[in-house]
## 1
Amino acid sequence: MAVELPFEKPLVELRSKIEELKTFTEEKGIDVSSEVAELERKAQELMETIYKNLTPWQKVQIARHPERPTTLDYIQGICDDFVELHGDRSFRDDPAVVGGIARFDGYPITVVGTQKGKGTKDNLYRNFGMAHPEGYRKALRLMKQAEKFRRPLLCFVDTAGAYPGLGAEERGQGEAIARNIIEMAALRIPIVVVVTGEGGSGGALGLGVGDRVLMLEHAWYSVIAPESAATILWKDPALGQKAADVMRITAEDLHRFGIIDEILAEPFGGAQRNHAQMIATVKEAVARSFRDLMAIDYGALPDRRFDKYRRIGVYGEGMQ
Amino acid sequence: MLKDLFPKKKRYATISPPSTARDKSLEGIMNKCKRCGEILLSKELEKHLKTCPNCGYHFTMTAQERIAVTFDEGSFQAFTDSLVTENPLEFPDYLEKVEKAQSLTGMEEGVLSGIGTIAGYKAVAAVMDASFIMGSMGSVVGERLTRAVEQALDRRVPMIIFSVSGGARMQEGIFSLMQMAKVSAVLARLAARGGLYISVLTNPTTGGVTASFAMQGDLNLSEPGAIIGFAGRRVIEPMIRQKLPDEFQTSEFVLEHGMLDQVVHRKDMKSLLATVLSLHERGGRG
């Protein structure tokens, strides 16, 4: 375990104790194998206890784990012949959003997604996966191109949110997201969205309108990041944990609410522990989703998508 | 859809006297301009459509006031519904907050909608109200906006949305976020059928409302000095560690950066809307 999360500490301590005992055995030649076995059994138990009872806040930490697969890992893992395409054709190329064309399950698709970095340098380059307006506009350009060539569209969402900055506001962050949302609602091609880590607010929805929305087991998706919610609600960003509890941001909550269509199971302990397994799960679910959607007349998809979103909302309706 | 209308009750056809419970600045007959400090008589302020005759500052209007100054007298028929806000997240104290807003504003929720004429041209309008939990958008606001756009679709009448909003309503979490997608989806349908949609962004329009329907108009209009943006100044300043200029995110700033078609003084808004509607007569006059 290279990067440990705070709640994994007891497990890490237990593991190091086991290692100590093993070393002790080797050095002194005293047999403590029964003790080691007992501790290993305990470690396994502890792992089960921790990972089967993750709190929303613990899931947020897993969703942000620096070793989770990124959008490019998924693209390279599930597609062949990926050709990355750059630029919004009006301002610049935003490295926080990647996209291109590729072969998936034997047919061509367009794929776009927010891209977090690996390590500090790459994260600075990727702006920690927080897109500027030109990122959303690049994505839209590729979406419209997908529609032109009748290619299904696959979107990966993993962002804390759209970048809040001066340049972003000057260039119309709100307009860029707004345009993507309304255009995605009208695209005459199948759209599958996978929320792989963080689904932060409008920044996520700007790539997140689809016919099928899939979400990884430990991902979060909300109107606002927990820390920001805590800042607004209780004027204290340190209360992110409390906000995570009340905001109902887990895949389980969203599936129960009918906001997402399917939860994709993660490897035990999180996607970061087994990339290959996670990528295989994503590939299978996306392939199955596209198979269903590609059987539908593409011209009918916007109306179906409208019906799907038209139903979302919880309110009472009393007597007139 | 006659049952959806108030054919006889012309509730919103006249400027209602501002209730003191709602707007402390209008208590009594004297008002102080928030920008230049000029003391204004209520009557004078009303005459100038709640703008300062001295410096042009635009005071916030309630939804009812906005309807009264925009639509021809007696023409506006409100759409009625019986939508009731619920608490899907079981968010602590949320419904109490809603009840408080209801008693403070006399409104059921943060948006009014209906149909009327502007200089004789028919339009469906949805008008948000800043005094109802900062004009935030929850499920009821999203549903009402959607239904209003559906009315515009059914009647083949242009749609106007007057926005004023702090953005999403946090207490409704993901449902609030998804209202952005819902309203956008119905506006996409209106666009696909050639319907005109005019968005008027009033002070302030921010967050998820800016990042959805407020920026999706065939025309995006605003009033002078309105704050329009996605992320707020208080979020951006610590992020970039510098102070933002005063004009940041004003409607003039947003116009200059190409996101608005015009910034229009309130006294000219009605005639501009009428002109635009007259230029879209095929889709405009039912």
## 2
Amino acid sequence: MHKLSIKQLSDGLHGKQFSSRELTQFYLGRIARYEPSLNSLITTTADRALAQADAADAVIAAGTAGPLTGVPLIQKDIFCTKGVRTSCASKMLDKFIAPYDATIVQKLDAAGMVMLGKANMDEFAMGSSNETSWYGPVKNPWDLERVPGGSSGGSVAAVAAGLAPVATATDTGGSIRQPAALTNLTGIKPTYGRVSRYGMIAFASSLDQGGVVARSAEDAAIVLQAMSGFDPRDSTSVDRPVDDYVAALGNSIKGLRIGLPKEYFAEGLAPSSRARIEQAIEVFKKLGASFTEVSLPNSPLSVPTYYVVAPAEASSNLSRFDGVRFGHRSETARTLEELYKRSRGEGFGAEVQRRIMIGTYVLSHGYYDAYYLQAQKVRRLIYEDFRRAFESVDLLLSPTATDTAFKFGTNADDPVAMYLNDIYTIAANLAGIPAMSLSCGFADGLPVGLQLMGNFFDESRMLNAAHQYQQATDWHLRSPKGFE
Amino acid sequence: MSLTADQIRQVAHLARLELKPEMTDAYARQLSNIMAMVGQLSQADTSNVLPMAHPLDMYQRLRLDAVTEPNEREAFQTIAPATENGLYLVPKVLD
């Protein structure tokens, strides 16, 4: 049952082959069985799930159900869920019970989905390996000694292990796509502004975007459709109709023009990953797509740009955690200043502290022009590279990550080496364009991911290309051993 | 670009972070490495380039000046670390 697509699950529910309560109990059973070896969830919400399942069954019985009614999911623990702990994987928010729902939680609840629990992640979404979580690292179901990627490591581990058919995720510099690549999943970060950020705990507000990780482009399209759309509560939400992602999946991709950015195939890409990507390119050619080499000359500067812009915005966003109104409060502070400093010193982990300090530094007097302003200018150069490329191609294709999943502790004392994990994913966030990762094979038994990047609001075309590739291949249908 | 332990202490003060003393040297080394990587930005020719703060050309939407949010003071205060008579408590500011 855990290998069924969302469409098959929906057909089963509508055809009364099983009820949403039975389906929910089935997944809760898998969580009880496999979760101890993965640590993919921070909170399991069994009672809430069963109540939602019963409500979904009533809707199905009444004949008013939609395509997601009664289908279970897992929410990344960065999305506020009313009455349920929303920790962002930080000690700072360990006891934080959100007083309201994020817009996407409201939307997916309204679509009839059943929330099984809240996924583990890197603390405040800062990390590429899920090793910074206050609740401990998440294991990769393909090899329990390796990381699942990050920051959406819990979301991908849970879906890859069949603990839920789909999960929400967020992506500030690759946090949907890199973990999806490392666990054989399909993950999409839509255009900046497409999915509401209301109730999504902020990391870097000009880069953060919500999305989804799933077992196929079709599943991702169905859930993204329900998540997307204008939200007056998010000042950066875009007021523009949402394309019909699902209807476009079946289109032919004959004549699709795909660019290969040469900087993404330069030194640093593992040979085995390169070979899998090249095989995938042949599949796309057989489906009628044409390829040309393009150049994004400023892409080598995307990581340095990101590590100014993102920490600067984070240092501002995270200033709200002061130990006064919510979140962790130090018990030893005697003055107000001590209360701020100790609550933050005790509540934030090392990676979060590093990024707050980098951000504070690059925004401080005497450094602002050399770092922050210069980074914002280079950001425009990176954006212009993409604008020019999309004048002659419809999509860009590249690797998602430089290599397959690495072992725990690999970059323990070397933040810069860890940051370079996101070398292929960060530019899409800086430019604001949509991007996704899908599986394109294996190297030494570990999944390899392929990235597609599209022009603004061209999610439909990306999902269509990914779906057509998945109709011609079966990599995405493979599951990790030990989680049958 | 190299940061000293003293600079780390100053930045931590500006960010209102109390660091564990034994972490200061490690942070100085790590932040120095990060800033060295970030230093590549100076290579880029950005003369005549406008800074880009945001991926979309956006304007601040306006709305009617009407009350839209209900008062949820009690719900918000139930998750506060310390409150009294509807007020948030902090350590004494004035002697």
